[in-house]
Write a structure and sequence with these properties.
The chain is an alpha/beta fold and 427 residues long. The protein has helices at residues 10-21, 33-40, 51-60, 70-75, 97-111, 129-142, 164-169, 181-191, 202-233, 237-245, 266-279, 285-309, 335-345, 358-365, 375-379; strands at residues 2-6, 25-29, 64-67, 79-82, 117-121, 150-154, 174-178, 197-200, 316-320, 349-353, 370-371, 384-387, 406-409, 421-424. Bound molecules: nicotinamide-adenine-dinucleotide.
């Protein structure tokens, strides 16, 4: 099938590459010309395991190309996936600017399109958005009707950054919200699901995505709540979570105590859901606690550092890891960036290293910190080392170059602990 992908970030590019790998003809669209050029040269603008190889293959065999010309992409596709960002506004509510612009452009292009178009919205949106914002905007811009000229469905994305390729190739479920079956049938034909398919209305599909992420965030905050007591009592939180994880009603994932959740999804989706509760006159008690516990973890971490080495002012601190988790270059809402912010307000001198995320870190922190390209350079003459991301590279580190070998681990990742003063955040 001929496919267009609007917005080629973490979701859009991976979706496009996987669909092109299945033999479909894919056109990726983005407003960012630099991203488009990189994709056409088969150089991924993001870090994801397995992406470089597959991108190269589908660009070389001409199954995937990229453009900034959305109109041309819509003219040449039968199904269009909208994957633009839906970040938070300062008050936590969802910012639909990118989506509104993209939908308007798709509608305008549809006006001149001869054939039928299936439109799949993948961006995360609060319940009511597809029906009340997306559908009217397409009708208004195109002057066309559904399901006569186009069909619209909502298909939330559940991929994990760092495992995005494998999650897209083998999703655990396919959720489709629709009012007619044309688009959903085309979607199923394109993705050929071998997982459970849940077909429902728009707003249920929209809420499934938020409920999914809110539950994951809750698990992490629960693990941190238990972990904080563990630390106080001298108990290893990981022995506790490993044991409870054997209970099939609990499961062993997302129970790692530490610096908490970050990234472009869990914090913003929890905030948008909290905001949706308030909009509808409800009090999101559990979600509020989940967010509060998460926000406190970075402060607890810096407090622990002060307890270990005293005032941080003027101290040389090595921060290992700025990505919000291992396997990605994404630093959006990364707990590490928050830790660095706190260190800087306390007058510390911060030097950072991350195997993949330095480019994005520079974009966030500019010249406020020093950047280095190796673990050894980061540790050189440092008074303290803070481990903020669970990169496997940090398991067996030689801390010999540090001035004072004090290491505080926020991710339960360090395995080689001889010759250092080691402290875990919750263990
Ligand atoms: N990143 C994840 O792990 C993940 C997982 C599940 C769901 N989601 C959701 O998927 C959506 C996309 O997330 P992402 O992380 O891929 O975002 P992203 O910021 O990485 O990518 C969005 C892209 O859309 C482009 N864009 C914006 N407006 C455009 C327009 N009018 N035309 C063409 N391109 C446009 C931007 O330039 C950017 O490249 C969000 O709603 C997010 O919540 C993300």
């Amino acid at each position: 099938m001929k496919i267009s992908i609007i917005g080629t970030g973490y979701v859009g590019l991976v979706t496009g590459v996987v669909l092109a790998g299945k033999g479909h003809e894919v056109i990726c669209v983005d407003v960012d010309k630099e991203k488009i050029d990189r994709i056409n040269q088969a150089v991924p603008p993001i870090h994801e395991d397995g992406l470089p190889e597959m991108l190269k293959a589908v660009v070389n065999n001409k199954k995937l190309r990229a453009t900034t010309d959305l109109k041309e992409a819509i003219q040449n596709s039968e199904i269009c996936f909208i994957c633009v960002g839906t970040p938070s506004k300062p008050d936590g509510s969802i910012d639909l600017t990118q989506l509104e612009n993209a939908v308007k452009q798709v509608g305008t292009a549809l006006k001149e399109k001869k054939g039928f178009l299936s439109i799949v919205v993948k961006s995360t949106v609060v319940p009511g958005t597809t029906e009340n914002v997306v559908l009217p905007a397409i009708i208004h811009a195109s002057g066309k009707k559904a399901p006569e000229h186009f069909s619209l469905c909502y298909n939330p994305e559940f991929l994990r950054e760092g495992k995005a390729m494998q999650d897209t190739l083998k999703p655990d479920k396919l959720v489709i919200g629709h009012t007619d079956t044309i688009c959903s049938n085309n979607l199923k034909q394109v993705v050929t699901p071998i997982c459970p398919v849940i077909e429902t209305n728009y707003k249920t599909a929209e809420l499934i995505k938020y409920a999914n992420n809110a539950f994951l965030a809750t698990k992490i905050s629960f693990a941190n709540e238990i972990g904080n007591l563990c630390k106080q009592l001298g108990i290893d939180a990981y022995t506790v979570s490993r044991a409870i994880g054997f209970d099939p009603r609990i499961g062993n994932q997302f129970l790692g105590a530490g610096l908490g959740f970050g990234g472009s999804c869990l914090p913003k989706d929890t905030a948008a859901l909290t905001s949706a509760y308030k909009k509808h006159g409800l009090e999101p008690k559990l979600l509020k606690a989940v967010t509060e516990i998460n926000d406190n973890q970075t402060e607890r971490f810096v407090h622990l550092a002060e307890k270990k080495v005293g005032h941080l002012s003027g101290k040389q601190i090595a921060v290992l890891g700025t990505a919000f988790k291992a396997g990605t270059d994404d630093t959006r809402e990364s707990p590490s960036i928050k830790v660095i912010g706190l260190l800087l307000t306390k007058g510390a001198k911060v030097r950072v290293f991350d195997p993949k995320a330095l480019e994005n870190t520079k974009r966030e922190l500019g010249n406020k910190v020093e950047y280095v390209n190796s673990i050894a350079d980061c540790l050189k003459d440092a008074d303290l080392c803070l481990i903020c991301t669970d990169w496997p590279e940090f398991k067996f580190i030689d801390f010999a170059g540090m001035k004072n070998k004090v290491v505080i681990d926020g991710r339960h990742i360090v395995e080689k602990k001889d010759g250092i003063t080691y402290e875990g955040l919750s263990w």
